[in-house]
Design a protein that fits this description.
Oligomer: single chain
Bound molecules: phosphoenolpyruvate
Number of strands: 8
Strand content: 15-25%
Number of helices: 11
Strand order of the largest sheet: 1-2-3-4-5-6-7-8
Order of helices and strands: EHEHEHEHHEHHEHHEHEH
Helix content: 40-55%
Shape: globular
Low-confidence stretches: none
Length: about 250
Protein backbone atom coordinates (compact mmCIF):
# COMPACT_ATOMS: atom_id res chain seq x y z
CA UNK A 1 0.00 0.00 0.00
CA UNK A 2 1.37 3.39 -0.98
CA UNK A 3 0.89 6.22 1.49
CA UNK A 4 -1.09 9.13 0.13
CA UNK A 5 0.54 12.56 0.11
CA UNK A 6 -1.61 15.69 0.14
CA UNK A 7 0.54 18.68 -0.74
CA UNK A 8 -0.50 22.30 -1.07
CA UNK A 9 1.29 24.55 -3.54
CA UNK A 10 0.63 28.05 -2.29
CA UNK A 11 2.34 29.61 -5.32
CA UNK A 12 3.05 33.35 -4.70
CA UNK A 13 0.42 33.77 -1.99
CA UNK A 14 0.43 34.75 1.69
CA UNK A 15 2.89 36.88 3.64
CA UNK A 16 4.93 35.45 6.53
CA UNK A 17 2.38 36.65 9.10
CA UNK A 18 -0.50 35.21 7.05
CA UNK A 19 1.47 31.96 6.85
CA UNK A 20 1.76 31.76 10.62
CA UNK A 21 -1.96 32.46 11.08
CA UNK A 22 -2.95 29.96 8.38
CA UNK A 23 -0.82 27.14 9.79
CA UNK A 24 -2.03 27.82 13.34
CA UNK A 25 -5.59 27.46 12.01
CA UNK A 26 -4.76 24.36 9.94
CA UNK A 27 -3.07 22.45 12.75
CA UNK A 28 -6.26 21.55 14.66
CA UNK A 29 -8.12 20.84 11.40
CA UNK A 30 -5.63 18.11 10.39
CA UNK A 31 -4.54 16.93 13.85
CA UNK A 32 -4.60 13.15 14.13
CA UNK A 33 -5.20 12.70 10.38
CA UNK A 34 -2.20 10.46 10.12
CA UNK A 35 -3.20 8.20 7.24
CA UNK A 36 -1.57 10.53 4.74
CA UNK A 37 1.38 12.88 4.65
CA UNK A 38 0.44 16.56 4.68
CA UNK A 39 2.75 19.11 3.10
CA UNK A 40 2.45 22.87 2.62
CA UNK A 41 4.80 24.27 -0.03
CA UNK A 42 5.11 27.95 0.77
CA UNK A 43 6.94 30.90 -0.80
CA UNK A 44 10.66 31.17 0.03
CA UNK A 45 10.16 34.17 2.31
CA UNK A 46 7.74 32.16 4.47
CA UNK A 47 9.76 28.97 4.90
CA UNK A 48 11.35 29.87 8.24
CA UNK A 49 8.10 30.89 9.93
CA UNK A 50 6.29 27.94 8.38
CA UNK A 51 8.84 25.45 9.74
CA UNK A 52 8.67 27.12 13.15
CA UNK A 53 4.85 27.17 13.23
CA UNK A 54 4.43 23.59 12.00
CA UNK A 55 6.87 22.16 14.59
CA UNK A 56 5.29 19.36 16.62
CA UNK A 57 2.36 18.99 14.19
CA UNK A 58 1.73 16.55 11.33
CA UNK A 59 2.25 19.30 8.73
CA UNK A 60 5.48 19.17 6.76
CA UNK A 61 6.90 22.17 4.97
CA UNK A 62 8.11 22.33 1.39
CA UNK A 63 9.65 24.91 -0.94
CA UNK A 64 8.45 25.60 -4.46
CA UNK A 65 11.80 25.52 -6.23
CA UNK A 66 15.51 24.99 -5.62
CA UNK A 67 18.66 25.85 -7.53
CA UNK A 68 20.95 23.14 -8.91
CA UNK A 69 24.25 24.65 -7.77
CA UNK A 70 25.51 24.18 -4.22
CA UNK A 71 26.31 27.88 -3.88
CA UNK A 72 27.73 30.72 -5.93
CA UNK A 73 26.90 33.61 -8.22
CA UNK A 74 23.17 32.93 -8.76
CA UNK A 75 21.50 36.11 -7.58
CA UNK A 76 18.02 35.56 -6.20
CA UNK A 77 18.29 31.78 -6.02
CA UNK A 78 18.02 29.34 -3.10
CA UNK A 79 20.22 26.26 -2.69
CA UNK A 80 19.17 22.85 -1.41
CA UNK A 81 21.54 23.17 1.58
CA UNK A 82 19.84 26.45 2.56
CA UNK A 83 16.44 24.70 2.55
CA UNK A 84 17.71 21.74 4.57
CA UNK A 85 19.35 24.04 7.12
CA UNK A 86 15.98 25.79 7.60
CA UNK A 87 14.25 22.47 8.34
CA UNK A 88 12.43 22.28 5.02
CA UNK A 89 11.67 18.66 4.04
CA UNK A 90 10.11 18.81 0.55
CA UNK A 91 10.59 20.78 -2.62
CA UNK A 92 8.42 21.06 -5.73
CA UNK A 93 10.54 20.88 -8.88
CA UNK A 94 9.50 21.43 -12.50
CA UNK A 95 6.09 22.96 -11.86
CA UNK A 96 4.54 23.98 -15.19
CA UNK A 97 4.53 27.64 -14.11
CA UNK A 98 8.33 27.44 -13.65
CA UNK A 99 8.63 25.77 -17.05
CA UNK A 100 6.33 28.34 -18.69
CA UNK A 101 7.43 31.62 -17.09
CA UNK A 102 10.99 30.90 -16.01
CA UNK A 103 12.26 28.93 -19.00
CA UNK A 104 12.91 25.73 -17.09
CA UNK A 105 13.67 22.74 -19.24
CA UNK A 106 13.75 19.03 -18.49
CA UNK A 107 17.55 19.34 -18.30
CA UNK A 108 17.49 22.06 -15.61
CA UNK A 109 14.69 20.24 -13.82
CA UNK A 110 16.88 17.11 -13.77
CA UNK A 111 19.82 19.11 -12.34
CA UNK A 112 17.55 20.53 -9.62
CA UNK A 113 16.15 17.09 -8.77
CA UNK A 114 19.65 15.66 -8.33
CA UNK A 115 20.82 18.61 -6.21
CA UNK A 116 17.76 18.36 -3.97
CA UNK A 117 18.09 14.60 -3.48
CA UNK A 118 21.81 14.84 -2.75
CA UNK A 119 21.05 17.40 -0.03
CA UNK A 120 18.44 15.09 1.55
CA UNK A 121 15.23 16.79 0.42
CA UNK A 122 12.13 14.94 -0.74
CA UNK A 123 11.23 15.98 -4.27
CA UNK A 124 7.77 16.54 -5.74
CA UNK A 125 8.56 16.37 -9.44
CA UNK A 126 5.87 17.81 -11.71
CA UNK A 127 5.18 16.46 -15.17
CA UNK A 128 2.22 17.02 -17.46
CA UNK A 129 1.07 17.64 -20.98
CA UNK A 130 -0.25 20.81 -22.63
CA UNK A 131 -3.83 20.79 -23.92
CA UNK A 132 -2.64 20.73 -27.54
CA UNK A 133 -0.45 17.73 -26.76
CA UNK A 134 -3.44 15.85 -25.29
CA UNK A 135 -5.52 16.83 -28.34
CA UNK A 136 -2.76 15.47 -30.57
CA UNK A 137 -2.83 12.17 -28.70
CA UNK A 138 0.79 12.41 -27.52
CA UNK A 139 0.21 12.63 -23.74
CA UNK A 140 1.98 9.33 -23.05
CA UNK A 141 5.03 10.33 -25.11
CA UNK A 142 5.27 13.71 -23.37
CA UNK A 143 4.98 12.12 -19.91
CA UNK A 144 7.55 9.50 -20.90
CA UNK A 145 10.06 12.06 -22.13
CA UNK A 146 9.64 14.37 -19.14
CA UNK A 147 9.85 11.55 -16.60
CA UNK A 148 12.90 9.99 -18.24
CA UNK A 149 14.88 13.21 -18.70
CA UNK A 150 13.87 14.69 -15.33
CA UNK A 151 15.03 11.49 -13.56
CA UNK A 152 18.23 10.94 -15.54
CA UNK A 153 20.95 9.56 -13.21
CA UNK A 154 18.59 9.40 -10.24
CA UNK A 155 19.19 6.02 -8.57
CA UNK A 156 16.58 3.46 -7.53
CA UNK A 157 17.55 4.14 -3.91
CA UNK A 158 16.95 7.88 -4.38
CA UNK A 159 13.49 7.15 -5.85
CA UNK A 160 12.29 6.56 -2.26
CA UNK A 161 12.47 10.35 -1.91
CA UNK A 162 10.80 11.19 -5.20
CA UNK A 163 7.07 11.85 -5.57
CA UNK A 164 5.85 12.47 -9.09
CA UNK A 165 2.93 14.85 -9.54
CA UNK A 166 1.03 14.32 -12.78
CA UNK A 167 -0.31 17.79 -13.54
CA UNK A 168 -2.00 18.30 -16.90
CA UNK A 169 -1.09 21.91 -17.70
CA UNK A 170 -4.59 22.62 -19.02
CA UNK A 171 -6.07 21.73 -15.62
CA UNK A 172 -3.83 23.91 -13.44
CA UNK A 173 -5.63 26.94 -12.06
CA UNK A 174 -8.32 26.65 -14.74
CA UNK A 175 -11.09 24.90 -12.84
CA UNK A 176 -10.97 22.23 -15.59
CA UNK A 177 -10.17 19.00 -13.77
CA UNK A 178 -9.06 15.85 -15.54
CA UNK A 179 -11.71 13.16 -15.36
CA UNK A 180 -11.03 10.32 -12.93
CA UNK A 181 -10.27 8.09 -15.92
CA UNK A 182 -7.83 10.60 -17.46
CA UNK A 183 -6.06 11.13 -14.11
CA UNK A 184 -5.85 7.40 -13.38
CA UNK A 185 -4.64 6.56 -16.87
CA UNK A 186 -1.96 9.28 -16.93
CA UNK A 187 -0.70 8.45 -13.41
CA UNK A 188 -0.55 4.83 -14.63
CA UNK A 189 1.53 5.92 -17.63
CA UNK A 190 3.97 7.69 -15.29
CA UNK A 191 4.16 4.58 -13.11
CA UNK A 192 4.83 2.42 -16.17
CA UNK A 193 7.71 4.73 -17.15
CA UNK A 194 9.13 4.42 -13.62
CA UNK A 195 8.85 0.62 -14.00
CA UNK A 196 10.73 0.80 -17.31
CA UNK A 197 13.49 2.81 -15.65
CA UNK A 198 13.72 1.13 -12.23
CA UNK A 199 11.66 -2.07 -12.29
CA UNK A 200 8.24 -2.99 -10.95
CA UNK A 201 9.09 -2.90 -7.24
CA UNK A 202 10.23 0.73 -7.36
CA UNK A 203 7.25 1.64 -9.57
CA UNK A 204 4.83 0.00 -7.13
CA UNK A 205 6.33 2.02 -4.28
CA UNK A 206 6.52 5.38 -6.07
CA UNK A 207 3.90 7.93 -5.07
CA UNK A 208 2.21 9.49 -8.10
CA UNK A 209 -0.06 12.40 -7.27
CA UNK A 210 -2.66 14.11 -9.41
CA UNK A 211 -2.70 17.91 -9.58
CA UNK A 212 -4.92 20.29 -11.52
CA UNK A 213 -7.94 22.01 -10.00
CA UNK A 214 -8.37 19.35 -7.32
CA UNK A 215 -10.82 20.72 -4.78
CA UNK A 216 -13.09 19.85 -1.88
CA UNK A 217 -15.79 18.58 -4.28
CA UNK A 218 -13.82 16.40 -6.70
CA UNK A 219 -11.04 15.13 -4.40
CA UNK A 220 -12.83 12.05 -3.05
CA UNK A 221 -13.37 10.50 -6.49
CA UNK A 222 -9.90 11.41 -7.77
CA UNK A 223 -8.24 9.96 -4.67
CA UNK A 224 -10.13 6.68 -5.15
CA UNK A 225 -8.33 6.03 -8.46
CA UNK A 226 -5.93 3.12 -8.22
CA UNK A 227 -2.94 5.00 -9.60
CA UNK A 228 -3.58 8.32 -7.83
CA UNK A 229 -1.61 8.51 -4.58
CA UNK A 230 -2.63 11.93 -3.38
CA UNK A 231 -2.81 15.42 -4.74
CA UNK A 232 -0.77 18.52 -5.43
CA UNK A 233 -3.25 21.28 -4.80
CA UNK A 234 -2.96 24.95 -5.68
CA UNK A 235 -6.01 27.18 -5.18
CA UNK A 236 -7.84 24.88 -2.76
CA UNK A 237 -4.80 24.62 -0.50
CA UNK A 238 -5.13 28.30 0.45
CA UNK A 239 -8.29 27.75 2.49
CA UNK A 240 -8.04 25.71 5.69
CA UNK A 241 -11.55 24.31 5.27
CA UNK A 242 -11.04 23.08 1.69
CA UNK A 243 -7.56 21.73 2.38
CA UNK A 244 -8.94 19.98 5.48
CA UNK A 245 -11.68 18.32 3.39
CA UNK A 246 -9.05 17.03 0.94
CA UNK A 247 -6.96 15.67 3.83
CA UNK A 248 -10.12 13.98 5.19
CA UNK A 249 -10.81 12.38 1.81
CA UNK A 250 -7.28 10.94 1.86
CA UNK A 251 -7.94 9.21 5.18
C1 LIG B 1 -0.72 23.56 -8.80
O1 LIG B 1 -0.37 24.71 -8.61
O2 LIG B 1 0.11 22.63 -8.80
C2 LIG B 1 -2.14 23.29 -9.03
C3 LIG B 1 -2.53 22.05 -9.27
O3 LIG B 1 -2.98 24.36 -8.96
P1 LIG B 1 -4.60 24.30 -8.92
O4 LIG B 1 -4.97 23.27 -7.90
O5 LIG B 1 -5.00 25.68 -8.52
O6 LIG B 1 -5.06 23.92 -10.28
Amino acid sequence: MRRLVIAGNWKMNKTPSETKAFLEALKPVVAGKDNCDIVCCVPATNLAIAVETAKGSNIKIGAQNVHFAKSGAYTGETSADMLVDLGVEYVIIGHSERRQYFAETDETVNARVKAALEAGLKVILCVGELEKERDQGITAEILGKQTKVDLLDVTAEQMKNVIIAYEPVWAIGTGKTATNEQADEACGVVRAVVAELYGKRVADETIVQYGGSMNAKNCADLLKCENVDGGLIGGASLKTEDFGIIVDAAQ
